[in-house]
Amino acid sequence: MDEIAIVGNGELKQADLTAIEQANLIVRFNSPPPSHIYAAAKTDILVLSNSSKQTSRLLGCSQYIKGPIFRQAKSIMLPYHPQIIAKYMPKPNPLSWLKGRRADLTQQCQDLASQHQKPCTTLSAEAYQQACQSLQIEGMGLRSTFPSSGLLAVRHIVDLHAKRSNI
Description:
9 helices, alpha/beta, five-stranded parallel beta sheet
């Protein structure tokens, strides 16, 4: 049976590290804390939130790009489709926009993945809409309540795994 390790950004214990390294598929998110560096020997999918200030900072940080979390990632997953970002996500205020802040970092993330020869997947707008339906987010709530990048990525990975396993 395939094991998937969904590794959040909380602190890890030695037993966690062992279980993670034994998994068939390891998924990590954004910028894990320094304690995860020692556990980064294997990362199959790195999920980068392509609509966040944190990712904007990471994209410009050579220490992150050269570090083990990004370097060890075999592929990149972007949870928010550009259509979803444009339609529902808040836009940066004018001053932030003038300073370079953008709501949609999809192209920058794809360019970075390409520069480092990492496949990059952007989840579909339909995946986002299905997550919203399952969480009963509708109407005006779509502009104020957003499924997390973690939820979107985990749903996608579990769905893919279930299809492969014919569950």
